[in-house]
Design brief:
Elements lengths: L5 E6 L4 E8 L6 H18 L8 E3 L15 E4 L7 H4 L9 E2 L2 E5 L4 E6 L5
Antiparallel strand pairs: 1-2, 3-4, 4-7, 5-6, 6-7
Amino acid sequence: MNDTNTAKIFDCEYRSSWNLNVDMSKYQTSGPATNALHRALRRLAEDLGQDPDNVMLVRPEDNDLVGHEYISGWGVCWEEGPHEWACTIQDSNGHFISGPWGYAEPGYSFSLSMIDDREGA
């Protein structure tokens, strides 16, 4: 995998970082990008000794069913994750994650909406 596009999370409180081994730039739409990020976060949760089922995938059809009103469309929620992970996730160049699919936007410090920002979408 090209390390340039590998997503990372930083925990400023404990001065730790984790490479997620997922290239967010290779996805064309927000659904597959969100699924890839969700799988990577589940792997990290397991590596940290947490229950990976606590990393929640939010699909557009789930938006009215979940209590995270700051997730719009596709999203990921991980309340047990590293401190403020959703605000510090970035690619290897230090930019907040994005790709041809669009961009991510934190709702809380533990949830991301994956905004489909393709031309004409």
